[in-house]
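Q: I'm a student working through a structural biology exercise. My instructor gave each of us a protein and asked us to get a predicted structure, then write a short paragraph describing it. Mine is MGMT family protein. I'm not confident about reading structure output yet, so if you can add a plain explanation after the tokens, that would really help. Here is the sequence I was given:
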Amino acid sequence: MDDELQERVREVIASVPAGSVATYGDIASVSGAPSPRLIGRILSEDGHDLPWHRILRADGTPAPHLVDEQLQRLREEGVIPDGQRVDLRKYRWQRDPDDDADLGGLF
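A: Happy to help. First, here is the predicted structure for MGMT family protein. I'll explain a few features afterward.
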């Protein structure tokens, strides 16, 4: 993975607003990353300063080892989970395609 891709991924994650969530796949798609798993790796290695708690699995659930803290942080932002799952139809980030300019016009 190159530094440019890592920075794009970080920028996309940082752009997910409070009160919204995105999936690892959403972030991969927007940033041009080859895999949602790479997003998880970037977050685990270099995501401490990002809103990591807004990024979920494709089924709307947090990673098992983060579930309590992640859901609590989301509740504080107004995202109300149903049990341990977030309703992606309600809370999923709807990215404005015009925001691509903020990412250096790479898309």
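A: Here are two points you could use in your paragraph. The chain has a mean pLDDT of 92. The first strand starts at residue 22 and ends at 23. It's a good idea to check both against the output above yourself.
Q: Great, thank you!
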